[in-house]
Amino acid sequence: MNGSSQTCDTFIEQTAFEYYKKEILPKNSIKKRFKITENLSRIFYLDASCLKNKIYNEKDIVPVPSLKYRQGYRFNFKEDKKLFRKVKSINKFSNNESYVEVSVAYKFDNRFFVVIREFIGAHGKTYTFEFDEKGNMIDYCLSSESLNLTVY
């Protein structure tokens, strides 16, 4: 392990997103086109009791963006124009937006995690992906569902 960097050059954020796009989205039969930015979001805790190795409200997590991300590599959306529309920013305070956020990778107990949040209007789902130090996906789950209401 090199300081806070991942031990492999795998862009696990992209790996998690590809799995979400190919395996999770088709099962949800969503007809919306999602907004997405090429920048990774930040999270402040991990809470995934649905994983085989459960995690409860863990705040002692370390962001470890992949080497490729630190070198300027961003998500590849070229073949995804029917599902995603790349934008510079997303209005997260609107109940009318449909968007997806992908977090930077985080390390906890020699495991790496990527969180993907999907919002359709006010309804949100959070998926947590777990990877080993070599970039292999160990597990994933739907870690939470939420209803976000904006009060004016």
Q: Please report the distance between the alpha carbons of the first and last residues.
A: 48 Å
Tell me the Rg in angstroms: 15 Å
Q: Mind summarizing the main beta sheet?
A: 6 strands, antiparallel
Structural class, please?
mainly beta
- Please indicate the percent range of residues in DSSP E strands (runs of 2 or more): 25-35%
Order of helical and strand elements: HEEEEHEEEEEE
Specify the helix fraction band: 10-25%
What is the arithmetic mean of pLDDT?
Answer: 80
Tell me the total number of β-strands: 10
- Name the overall outline: globular
> What's the total helix number?
2
The stretches of 5 or more residues where confidence is low (pLDDT under 50) are 1-8
Task: Give a written overview of the molecule.
There is one protein chain. This protein has 152 residues and is mainly β. It has helices at residues 12-28, 67-70; strands at residues 34-36, 46-48, 55-58, 62-63, 84-86, 98-102, 106-108, 111-120, 123-131, 137-147. The strands form 3 sheets. Strands 4, 6, 7, 8, 9 and 10 form a 6-stranded antiparallel beta sheet that branches. It has a two-stranded parallel sheet with strand order 1-5. The chain has a two-stranded antiparallel ribbon with strand order 2-3. Strand 9 (123-131) and strand 10 form a beta hairpin. Mean pLDDT is 80; it is low at 1-8.
